[in-house]
């Protein structure tokens, strides 16, 4: 697939980089952009040795949410068509959330609406001090529907209500304080800090990353007693992998495991 609105590149076998590349449109999400992103995620998911996906935006904005030109067309649609057009966006967030890689958000600038939601699905979110955030849907008489489950999970119900019901903007420092961001750095330090995060991920086997992410998604919100059989089987499965044998041997022999990779 030839991408018009995004860029997908790879650094060696371990790292993929996915860039929203519509700076003239503040990297807003249209149905065409959503389709390209979903295709890119499929490509990344199929590369077993990729450990991390770095998600960012081109230009000064991370993502301004929904494309207003697309929203205009929705006004004239039937209810059935509106639902049909909304579903790919819901699928996109689900596929991001279940990607068996570490999704590292390089939040280079403002993230509003769907951009706020994309920040929420990042496993690690590093933001520039110039970034600002808002759930802007209510300003348009709408609701943050497709991103809602991920916003609530990231921030908790109280904070989700605080920002979703007021549509207020917050800066990067406040975003870090409430848990939307993990780290905040000056723009000129953003790439260096992303490399620090990638160095951590490169030291882990891809299979363990995928297994751990799936585990967390499967147990979230469930009482621990209901998870016991599942987690016991999960651990037994992990013990039976070549990565477990190599990891234990490397630890006992005080050497780097075979899967550890350096920057490409």
UniProtKB/TrEMBL annotation:
Check the UniProt entry and state the signal peptide residues, or none.
Answer: none
Q: Which Gene3D superfamilies match?
A: 2-enoyl-CoA Hydratase, Chain A, domain 1, Lyase 2-enoyl-coa Hydratase, Chain A, domain 2
Q: Kindly list the GO molecular function terms attached to this UniProt entry.
A: catalytic activity
| Highest taxon in the source lineage | Bacteria
Coiled-coil boundaries: none
Query: Could you say which protein family the record assigns here?
Result: Belongs to the enoyl-CoA hydratase/isomerase family.
Q: What is this protein called?
A: Methylglutaconyl-CoA hydratase
Give the organism the record lists: Extensimonas vulgaris
Highest classification ranks of the organism: Bacteria, Pseudomonadati, Pseudomonadota, Betaproteobacteria, Burkholderiales
